[in-house]
Amino acid sequence: MLDSSGLSRREVLQKCVALGSITLIASQSSAAMLLAFEEKELHKPTPPNELGPFYKKRAPQTAMLRAAGDPGMPLSVSGQILDTRGEKLPNVVVEVWQTDHLGHYDLDGYRYRAKLPADGSGNYKFESVMPGHYPDRVCQHIHYLVTAPGHKPLVTQLYFATDPVFEGDPDKNFNRDPLIHSRELVRPVMLVGDPKDIHAAVNFELCLERV
Amino acid sequence: MWRRLAVIADMLLLVPVLAAEALRPEKTIILPTDVVIRFTAISPAGTFVAGICRDQKLRLWDVSAGSLSRTLDLGGERLTSVRFSDDGQLVALGGAKGGVRIWELPSATLKLEFTNPSEVNALAISRDRKLVAAAPLEEAVEVWDLSSAKQVAKMRAPFSGTSALAFSPDSHWLATADGDTSIRLYDARTGKLRNSVDDLLLESFAIVFSTDGKYILTGGADKVVNVIDASSGKVLRSLAKQDDVLLDLRQSRDGKRLVAAYVNADDPSKASPVVIWDLETQSPRTRILEPGVVPNGGEFLLDGRLLMTSGSEKELKIWSVSP
Question: Does domain B5-68+83-94+162-321 fall into CATH 2.120.10.30?
Answer without folding.
Answer: yes
